[in-house]
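Saturday, quiet lab. Running sequence design on the structure tokens for the scaffold JK sent over.
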């Protein structure tokens, strides 16, 4: 007998749960301004999440998927990407969208049922939110193929959950990206739950990162609650892809602290103890502790930042609530370049009904 293949999966972390550096930090993280910016973006995302849930609970938003506890993954990813790269998000990545310049009011518009919120004027080539699980991973592979074909130095980034990696779409995407050496980064946000299905019931695979092995591409794990390691490793993967080195799969280990969406009640299927122990790994507290220990942050600054974030979110909410709703038939308008006759008829029918109703 001989061993014909073997592999190892590496896990990396710079800041541990207490906010202490466990390794020499990468160059960018030696700049306090950079870390303060990451901290700010994470606090803003958390402030936004809280308010979006309050809007939903008071009937002013359709539904919403919180990113509570996962802020480091999304902020780190946003800061690793270049403006010309393309993001193919699922439904929890608003933190990344904000870093890419998408206004908070757009995200509210979308979850309020208005497709204009997905126009992403500031990140025009990014894909819209994908609620269908993992279908957008294929779209990212397709975009990456286009970049390669046109010889553009751009990378497509697909973000999907632990549950998403069980889908055929996911395997097909990493397979084709491997075969065609595509400039694509697969970001697997392992938040331990796919609605009520825990990670252990999702796959017997010891890590999700090792799914990359079967596609012939590198896979690795990072601490998804450490913004420094996320930014660092995603940037390494993006640079490699941009230079023709092919795709990478990065599994970010984090935890979904809120309900799956506002349509869920997680207390029905997971224990309070599990939640409490995960809170101790909080990404925001950890960076705060590090910055304070470095003399680069203080409680006064922290209070000031909270006020600023609240103010920014207030302004976004005002803008959202003051946006004139569109007529119902506009739901057909973003489906096709030119609408097939069947839909045209439905559009007209709805328009007529709405007029009568008004
Ligand atoms: C194709 C498809 N099947 C089922 C669903 C219903 N659904 C919505 S979210 C979800 C779980 C996804 O879990 P995961 O990929 O881990 O992402 P997370 O929500 O944890 O970020 C499922 C099954 C869906 N949206 N699309
Ligand atoms: Mg999940």
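Result came back. Writing it out in full:
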């Amino acid at each position: 007998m001989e061993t014909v293949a073997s592999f190892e999966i590496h896990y990396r972390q710079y800041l541990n749960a207490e906010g202490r550096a466990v390794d020499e930090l990468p160059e960018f993280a030696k700049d306090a301004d950079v870390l303060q910016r990451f901290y700010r973006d994470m606090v803003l995302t958390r402030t936004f999440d809280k308010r979006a849930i309050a809007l939903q609970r008071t009937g002013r938003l359709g539904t919403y998927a919180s990113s509570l506890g996962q802020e480091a993954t999304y902020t780190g990813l946003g800061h690793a990407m270049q403006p010309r790269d393309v993001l193919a998000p699922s439904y929890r990545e608003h933190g990344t969208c904000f870093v890419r310049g998408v206004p908070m009011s757009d995200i509210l518009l979308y979850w309020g049922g208005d497709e204009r919120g997905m126009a992403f004027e500031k990140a025009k080539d990014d894909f819209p939110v994908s609620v269908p699980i993992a279908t957008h991973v294929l779209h990212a592979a397709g975009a990456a193929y286009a970049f390669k074909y046109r010889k553009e130095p751009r990378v497509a980034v697909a973000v999907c959950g632990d549950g998403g990696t069980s889908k055929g779409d996911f395997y097909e995407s990493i397979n084709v990206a491997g075969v065609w050496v595509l400039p694509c980064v697969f970001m697997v946000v392992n938040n331990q739950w796919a609605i009520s299905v825990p990670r252990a019931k999702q796959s017997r695979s010891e890590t999700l990162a090792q799914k990359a092995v079967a596609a012939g591409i590198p896979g690795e794990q990072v601490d998804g609650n450490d913004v420094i390691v996320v930014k660092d490793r995603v940037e390494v993967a993006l640079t490699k892809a941009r230079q023709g080195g092919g795709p990478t799969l990065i599994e970010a280990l984090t935890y979904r602290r809120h309900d799956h969406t506002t349509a869920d009640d997680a207390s029905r299927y997971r224990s309070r103890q599990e939640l409490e122990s995960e809170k101790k790994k909080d990404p925001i507290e950890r960076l705060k502790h590090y910055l304070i220990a470095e003399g680069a942050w203080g409680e006064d600054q922290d209070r000031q930042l909270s006020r600023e974030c609240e103010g920014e979110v207030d302004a976004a909410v005002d803008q959202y609530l003051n946006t004139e709703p569109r007529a119902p038939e506009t739901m057909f308008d973003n489906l096709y370049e030119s609408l097939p006759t069947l839909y045209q008829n439905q559009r007209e029918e709805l328009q007529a009904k709405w007029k009568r109703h008004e």
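Notes for JK: The pocket of magnesium ion (ligand 2) is lined by residues 161-163, 191, 193-194 (CB under 6 Å). Residues 32-57 form the longest helix (26 residues). Ask whether to fix the surface positions before the next round.
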